[in-house]
């Protein structure tokens, strides 16, 4: 049973929704801090949820919130977390739509948006590195474990790394559609893992 109430879960996702500036991928970093580091789900389960949320239609932040809520509390948890995640955006959009036209061109507002871009991209980078590390690498428990030769040999999940590198080049050169990559990844997982 989860160690947080539905009420606390609502506010966790309200917080995530409130501070997710820059898209749903930014929400992953915040969710990891709020959910995984509290021990509500394991890191592996969390990253599996990311894969599923990326593969389903809709915004990843909302998909993740719904999936995590359902995992922890079933349908009531899914409803609560989805509302918690979406509510700040809805309120902000209503306020911005009402007042932005009167102050959109002020230097302060322009500077805020300029500063938010690198902050958002930094959060997205952290989420990307976390997913990459979990899916491609077998990191040892401690830094001191890196001293041992067999640890270096087993540092990477070689099948996943080779698959990643094989798909990286056509993805960049051919600009493959994400659905094709998802299907290829799912087939690889079923056939080879």
Describe the structure.
This protein is 78% helix and 0% strand. It has 193 residues and is mainly alpha-helical. The mean pLDDT is 82. The radius of gyration is 19 Å and the shape is globular. Helix 2 (24-36) packs across helix 4 (60-103).
User: Could you estimate the helical fraction of the residues in percent?
Assistant: over 70%
Gap between N and C termini: 30 Å
Low-confidence stretches: none
Biggest beta sheet summary: none
Could you tell me the mean pLDDT?
82
Query: What is the number of strand segments?
Result: 0
Taking Cα atoms only, what radius of gyration do you get, to the nearest Å?
19 Å
Q: Structural class of the helix and strand makeup? A: mainly alpha
The assembly state of the depicted protein chains is single chain
Provide the β-strand percentage band: under 5%
Q: What is the tally of helical segments?
A: 8
Shape: globular
The SSE string, one letter per element, is HHHHHHHH
